[in-house]
Amino acid sequence: MQDIVSVTGITKTYASGFQALNGIDLAIHSGEIFALLGPNGAGKTTLISIVCGIVNASSGKVVVDGHDIVRDFRAARSIIGLVPQELTTDAFETVWNTVSFSRGLFGRAPNPAHIEKVLKALSLWDKKDNKIMTLSGGMKRRLMIAKALSHEPKVLFLDEPTAGVDVTLRRDMWQLVRELRDTGVTVILTTHYIEEAEEMADRVGVINKGELVLVENKAELMRKLGRKELTLQLAAPLAQVPDKLQPYALTLSADGNDLTYTYDAQSGRAGIATLLKDLGDLGIPFKDLHTTQSSLEDIFVGLLKEGA
Ligand SMILES: Nc1ncnc2c1ncn2[C@@H]1O[C@H](COP(=O)(O)OP(=O)(O)OP(=O)(O)O)[C@@H](O)[C@H]1O
Ligand SMILES: [Mg+2]
Q1: Residue 174: CB partners within 8 Å, gap ≥ 6?
Q2: What is this structure's pTM?
Q3: Backbone angles phi, psi at 232, to 5 degrees
Q4: Structural domain contains residue 194
């Protein structure tokens, strides 16, 4: 797969002396949805701002679709759409004018049909003549996305795109992002909603304290690090886990009714068959059983704990 964004050895030390990024290497594949996860202050916005040419890196190099973002800033920037984390809009302008104007800033010829399509996709069409100050917070955020799409970018950066957006609209936005990807747009997003990454991302990067601690295909990540739990609902409560079952490291619920077995979803021999046989031999019947798979959130929290 071709890389559309390549980040090499990027560091950033702010004027305060604070080092926000510490040697980031990252290649974004053309046409993928890449989710950048990390706690507050990890350096996500700093990294995106550098790629978009808003913040200067202290060292390192960024190339966007063949254009060096410093030497060839205009060409690189025209390929990029950015939805910043902080909302900045002109309160007195109308929705339509703001989005149309934004397209003009990139030197693109007017294209009302495109603007109409974007506004409709973001459920802003009926607000097109409204002044921005009359929009709700969630509408303003959608307006920022419309602005970023106004010049038909090849690469779209979404810094916390759905913060403050309600659940239904969030789902609509996910759909929109997938549709954009399907038309060939590369999407890089940051989010604190792990569910968002789990739903959308093709690959996931985790950044912590200015370092990229992991970059992985999402499905692979969940397969590798995912754990499964098997919970058995017992026919009668147990006072304690019988000695013979010690090797399984089971946990017994406080009321003695549920036995839980945690195993590696990857390993072919999960040991479930022998566990069930041992339970049968001990005369411990169960009423029901179910399994759960760990979520990306579990994996993420685990990773950050490891790195702490
Ligand atoms: N202009 C600045 N001057 C000095 N320090 C800054 C500046 N901007 C950001 N920082 C610091 O750099 C670090 C990374 O900030 P950044 O905004 O990139 O984090 P983030 O991962 O986007 O966090 P969040 O999830 O809260 O948006 C933080 O410690 C922040 O305080
Ligand atoms: Mg941020």
Answers
A1: 196, 199, 200
A2: 0.80
A3: -105, 125
A4: yes
Distance 40 CA to ligand 1 centre (A): 8
Ligand 1, residues at Cβ distance < 6 Å: 14, 16, 18, 20, 38, 40-46, 85
Residue 270: which residues within 8 A CB-CB, separation 6 or more?
Answer: 228, 263, 264
pLDDT at 268 exceeding the cut of 60: no
Q: In terms of DSSP bridges, do strands 19-29 and 155-159 run parallel, antiparallel, or are they unpaired?
A: unpaired
Domain check: are 193 and 59 in the same one? yes
Domain range for 76 is 3-222
Residues 216 and 232 in one domain: no
Q: Examine residue 300 and state whether it is found in any structural domain, yes or no.
A: no
Is position 15 within any domain? Answer: yes
Which residues make beta-bridge pairs with 22?
Answer: 11
Instruction: Calculate the dihedral angle through the C-alpha atoms of 96, 97, 102, 108, rounding to the nearest 10 degrees.
Output: 90
Q: 266 pLDDT band (50/70/90 cuts)?
A: low
CATH of the domain at 268: 3.30.70.1560
The ligand that comes nearest to the alpha carbon of residue 84 is 2
Residue 31, strand partner residues: none
Q: Are residues 176 and 232 in the same domain?
A: no
CA-nearest residue for atom 5, ligand 1, is: 14
**Do 253 and 174 have their domain in common?**
no
Share of the chain above pLDDT 70, in %: 93
Q: How far is the CA of 20 from the centre of ligand 1 (A)?
A: 7
Mean pLDDT, residues 302-306 taken together: 70
Counting ligands in written order, the one closest to the CA of 47 is: 1
Residues 191 and 140 in one domain: yes
Whose CA is closest to 124, among 110, 135, 113, 133? 135
